[in-house]
Design brief:
Elements: H1 5-16, E1 21-30, E2 33-41, H2 48-66, E3 71-76, H3 88-92, E4 97-102, E5 107-115, E6 119-124, E7 127-132, E8 136-141
Parallel strand pairs: 2-3
Antiparallel strand pairs: 1-2, 4-5, 4-8, 5-6, 6-7
């Protein structure tokens, strides 16, 4: 998910001030400078304005933390069909449509109602379903579930 939990938490705290969540942060060394990439999310919608505002804050903070401005920063939204990469993302994407592929080959579709990091509650057509995150083989955001 990130280079260090401290760096991730620092940037996430900064972004929370503008109502944006940090989903993912990566730093990598590259010939001619560092490369950083961030995925940000705002529940009301993540467009160019949100990505630009997040980019400006992240850029300034990384310049201070890295002691250089010699890096490239890419900032993006998670997209409508993002593959969920960490347990924390289930809480970040509460309210969004999801399709979960479970270890027992079952598929659960609905909206994420809540998550505590170990369990995700999905509101399905048949009612709420509590699922252990450890039993999820793959999770994907699924915009088509949001109109139901």
């Amino acid at each position: 998910m990130t280079e260090s939990i401290e760096l991730y938490n620092d940037i996430a705290s900064l972004l929370s001030g503008i109502g944006v969540e940090l989903v993912e942060l990566h730093l990598s060394g590259k010939r001619g400078g560092e490369k950083a990439s961030a995925v940000v999310y705002k529940p009301a919608g993540t467009g160019i304005d949100e990505c630009s505002a997040a980019h400006r804050l992240i850029q300034a903070r990384l310049e201070v933390l890295l002691g250089t401005d010699d890096f490239q920063l890419e900032t993006a939204s998670p997209g409508v069909d993002r593959v969920i990469r960490s347990p924390a993302e289930y809480a970040i994407f509460a309210g969004r449509g999801v399709r979960l592929f479970l270890e027992d080959e079952d598929v659960v579709e609905g909206r994420i109602a809540s998550s505590d990091g170990e369990t995700v509650v999905v509101s399905t057509a048949g009612g709420d379903r509590s699922i252990a995150i450890a039993s999820i083989r793959k999770g994907k955001l699924d915009y088509s579930q949001e109109g139901r």
